[in-house]
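Ticket #4471: structure export looks truncated?
Reporter: QA, pipeline team
Priority: medium

Steps to reproduce: submit the single chain below to the structure queue and open the exported record.
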Amino acid sequence: MTDVMEGTSLEPLAAPGRFALPWHRGSASDAVWRGVLVAFGLTIPLLLVGIAAALLHGAWPAVTRFGAGFVTGSAWDPVSDRFGGVPFLAGTLASSLLALLIAVPLSIGLALFLTELAPRWIAAPIAFATELLAAIPSVVYGLWAIFVLVPFLRDTVETPLSDRLGASLGIFAGPAYGPSILAGGVILAIMIVPFVSAVSREVIAAVPRAQREAALALGATRWESTWQIVLPAARGGLIGAVMLGLGRAIGETMAVTMVIGNTPQVPHSLFAPAYTMASVLANEFAEASGDVHRSALMYVALLLLAVTLVVNAFARALMWRVERRAAR
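Actual output as written to the record:
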C-alpha cells in the first residue's frame, strides 16, 4: 500500500495550466479591482482634505493677523484692513434657520399628504411639480424674488408688522426696506422644500404598510396612525431630510445675494438687511484689491466649510442616536 502511494504522483492534478492559470488571473483581477475601489473610496476624503488645505493656505495670513478675533469681530472695512466674520456668520445662521422654520412643516406635511391621504391620480402630478422646483436655477429664483416676493413682503407683511408690533417686539422693529433677512429666509425655504419633501416622502413611504394596518385594526384613527406609528418609525430619515435642507440653505449663494440686502452688519430684526458668508464671497472676491482683503475672504470660506462640516457631523450623530434608540 505504501509502495502504491509512493509511486503515485500528485503533480498532474496541479500541473496543467488550465487549472492554475484561471486562479492566477482571478487573483490579479481581484487585486486590480480592489485597488480601483480603494482609490475611488479615498477620492472624496482626499478631495475634502485638499479643499480644506487650500482654504487654510489662502486664509493663513488673515488667521495669523486676526486669529480668533476674526470670529468674534464685527467690523468689515477693506479700506483700513479691519475684518470680522460675525455679521456673515449671523446672517447665514439666521436666514438658514428661518428657512427651516418655514420649509420643514410645509415639506413634511406635503410628504404626509402625498403618501397617506392623496389618491394616486393627484399625488403623482403634485410630486412631479414639487420635484420640478429643484431644477429651477437659483438666479431665476432670485429674479422672481426681486420683482414679486420682495415687494409683496414689504407691502403686505413687513410694513404692517413693523407698524403694529415693531415697538413691542424687537424682531419686527425697523423700517421695511424689502431686501432683508425675512426675504432671504423665505426664498431659501422655497428652494429647499423640494429636497426635504422628496426625501421625507421616500422615508415615510418606506414604513411597512402592515404597521399602519395594524394600528387601524386596533381602532386607531388615521391621524393617530400617522402621528404615533408612521412618524416615529420614519424619525431618523426625517432628521436626515431636515439636515439636508439645512446644508442646502447654508451654501446657497445667488438667490440670497439678490434679496438679503448685502449689508455687513449684525441684523437685529427680521426686516433688516444682512449678509451671508456665501454672498460676501460671491460679491467681493473678484474685486478684492489687497492681499489682506483676499485672505479675509478665504477665512470666511474656511468658516463656511467648518460650519457645513459641523452641521453634517451633528446630523450624523443625531441620526445615529435616534436609530440606536429605535433599535433598543
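Status: closed, not a bug. The export was complete when the record was re-opened. Leaving a note from the reviewer for reference: The chain is about 75% helix and 0% strand.
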